[in-house]
Amino acid sequence: MGLQSGSSGKTFSWGFRNLIRKKQVDSVRLRPHGNLQLARKLSALDLVAIGVGATIGAGVYILVGTVAREHSGPALTISFLIAGIAAALSAFCYAELACRCPSAGSAYHYSYICIGEGVAWLVGWALILEYTIGGAAVARGITPNLALFFGGEDKFPALLARHAIPGLGIVVDPCAAVLVLIVTVLLCIGIKESSLAQMIVTTVNVGAMLFIIVAGGYLGFKTGWVGYELQSGYFPFGINGMFAGSSIVFFSYIGFDSVTSTAEEVWNLYGRLVFGE
């Protein structure tokens, strides 16, 4: 009985030590030069394109109107400022960790160094789940928007339209699958080529957003915002509404951490990664 108890105690101790086992900070820098490493081809401009492209997404277009109407009103600008400061503090931490521990593992690697293997394992799988669900959601959202571009779902090519499998209740979206395949091919070609594609898409995205801001503001002030019931004052929902809005619009900043996953592919890491963040 005593031997079994001692054996169980040793097993538990061994398992616990593995859970809290940490990597050394310089383990990545001390890799033998003969090992396979990622090509360092990214510049500061590439990092900015990746960071801005990952940050400016559907959240910016969807959340602005909702938060302005229901939470902040004109104080939306301050809500964005508060959320931006919070995101910047987190980005500075990511930039410092990425410079000290340049690894494609990002948050997984940082957790492995600071906390231990057990937490890093959870963080790694959480990141995989996050990117999988996020990518699937974005891919699924392209079909209705592309249908509007063609003039309606009835004019959308049948080969790319969504189809429901009878009896199973499963909807197949070929257009989403094609988008995922295109992105996968770009990533397989190389980081420089995928970064160039990201830069083009980001430029178009930023241009579209600036056009919406300028054209919408001009038409709104010209017509006097006809059809909209405007709240009075700069803080129509009070300070609480402004802070509630800042907590919601923080979602629109999510994505800046993707820059740190390219740490092993940046030349002149210490200057360019911080600039990209």
Automatic annotation (TrEMBL):
GO MF annotations, alphabetized: amino acid transmembrane transporter activity
Transmembrane segments: 44-64, 76-95, 107-128, 164-189, 196-221, 233-256
Cellular compartment(s): Membrane
Membrane topology label: Multi-pass membrane protein
Top-level taxon of origin: Eukaryota
Keywords (A to Z) from UniProt: Membrane, Transmembrane, Transmembrane helix
Gene3D superfamilies per record: Amino acid/polyamine transporter I
InterPro entries the UniProt entry points to: AA/rel_permease1
Gene Ontology CC annotations of this record: membrane
Family of this protein: Belongs to the amino acid-polyamine-organocation (APC) superfamily. Cationic amino acid transporter (CAT) (TC 2.A.3.3) family.
Alphabetical list of PANTHER family matching this protein: CATIONIC AMINO ACID TRANSPORTER 4, VACUOLAR, INNER MEMBRANE TRANSPORTER YGJI-RELATED
Protein name stated in the entry: Cationic amino acid transporter 4, vacuolar-like
